[in-house]
Amino acid sequence: MEHRTFLDALDAQKDAQDFLLATVLEGQQQGAALLLCDGQVAWTSAPETLLTQNLSALKKCTTSGVLTLGDTRVFAERFGAGARLVICGGGHVAAAAVRLAKLLDLPVTGLEDRPEYADALRETGADRVLCAPFETSLAQIPGSTETYFCVLTRAHAYDITCLKQILQKPAAYVGMMGSRGRSELVRRQLAEAGLDPARVARLHAPIGLAIGAKTAQEIALSILAQIVEIKSHRQLTEGFTPEIRAAWAQCRQEQTDAVLATIVSRHGSMPREVGTKMLILPDGSTAGSVGGGIMEYRARQLAEKMLAGTEAPQQLASFATGLEDDEKALAACGGSMELFLQVLAGGTEAK
């Protein structure tokens, strides 16, 4: 993969909502790749490939997985622009939610109209804080299918103000803190204000999972647990996480090689999903993880050989526990996986 131009293409699609990366896994065109953004070709590793010849089939992919084009296996990966959290309010629950979200590597934007509370959001780690009336700040948030809105304001009137705007934006999730009675009142008022009933029905209020939360930290935990639950059930992979992209960009800057390993299929009980990535760096360190344990260790060993030039620069490899056969491996550890590994060269061309 020409990672210099691929990263540039990915970075250029700031307004795109839906991505599909297709990669040829085998045959003479192994490693050929194509990126679709909102259904349009944004980048391709070569002008004429099996992928460019089968655009219509790729555009019909609604989930991630291995498909066959002709007699060749191709990995099609659908991912979004990256989950992001928008928190309206700057009280104790909001501050706890920011801290927990950062532990989960979620970018956070905080909205607060009181300067001292806005400063508190910055101190707790929010990536971006807008200090202005809520309606003014929300006008600067376009929303997306990867945006998770949490309304945690200090008063009912502010909840209504925020929700009237948020429920007209694209969103992966909208939740509001409040009692059941207050939540029903808000729903009635939003319906009376003429908001789309279908959107109002999708409002998570009271916000969070029902775990009996009482303290600010417990409420924040219930909120983030609900967001993780919804995020994990969506038919999208994690794509290229900020950690992976930062490490990849560093390799590009230093002109050093790395190996990108992607889970393209999995069987049985595995900790990571299809599309999960790990970048193996020349010093043996990694960004991301494909699940840890013996299988990740063996993947890292193979990557080191690829970087040393003693193994082919592109590999489709199967990993289990090393027992006599896959059935015994599944019985012993619960799963196996296929990884596609490719050397990303430090120059402009892939090796």
TrEMBL record:
SUPFAM superfamilies: NAD(P)-binding Rossmann-fold domains (SSF51735). This is Xanthine dehydrogenase. Residues 85-227 form the XdhC Rossmann domain. Residues 252-311 form the XdhC- CoxI domain. InterPro entries: MoCofactor_Util/Proc, NAD(P)-bd_dom_sf, XdhC_CoxI, XdhC_Rossmann_dom. It comes from Faecalibacterium prausnitzii. PANTHER family: ALDEHYDE OXIDOREDUCTASE MOLYBDENUM COFACTOR ASSEMBLY PROTEIN (PTHR30388), XANTHINE DEHYDROGENASE SUBUNIT A-RELATED (PTHR30388:SF6). It comes from the Bacteria.
